[in-house]
């Protein structure tokens, strides 16, 4: 994502661990440096949903720096909405409310439904949280749901890279 019409240009690094236990040792160091997070679970797998809420979210909240925006800028994302859901929209929204989260999305990485809007919503939330810490907020300037002064535009396609910066082979 590219920020235009503003001086805010956040560096973005996406690191995806797919919930694998072998990455637990490195995730806490990422939490300490992160400004926001997409906590993604599989809507067709109840265990994935429970792990996201009861394990990954708890670890994130315990590890995040108190002065970071991470705790308020974590989004619960139900993915694989192209499959038959075991976790329905109502259960997802109820959990978001119970967990005190402000951000939530339902997506399909396969079809692309909701993916861009989830990232955009998170980026805007991080931007707003940073501005509030600095004494201002885009919320005060955005009016009724608009984003005056902040436009998100797709960047040109970049070569795919692995989590640690190495080029990924697409074959």
Q: Characteristics of this structure?
A:
single chain; 171 residues; alpha/beta; two-stranded antiparallel sheet; 5 helices; globular; disordered N terminus
- Range of helix content: 25-40%
Q: Unreliable runs, pLDDT <50, ≥5 residues? A: 1-14, 139-149
Strand elements, count: 5
Q: Could you tell me the radius of gyration in angstroms?
A: 16 Å
Strand content: 5-15%
**SSE topology string:** EHEHEHEHHE
Mean pLDDT: 76
Structural class: alpha/beta
- Looking across the biggest beta sheet, what order are the strands in? 2-3-4
- First-last Cα distance: 26 Å
Largest sheet: 3 strands, parallel
Description:
Helices cover 36% and strands 13% of the residues. With 171 residues, the chain is an alpha/beta fold. Strand 2 (37-42), helix 2 and strand 3 (74-79) form a beta-alpha-beta unit. The protein is globular and about 45 Å long.
Secondary structure layout:
Blueprint: E1 2-4, H1 24-33, E2 37-42, H2 46-63, E3 74-79, H3 89-98, E4 103-106, H4 115-133, H5 139-142, E5 151-153
Structure in a nutshell:
By secondary structure, this protein is α/β, with parallel strands linked by helices. 36% of the residues lie in helices and 13% in strands.
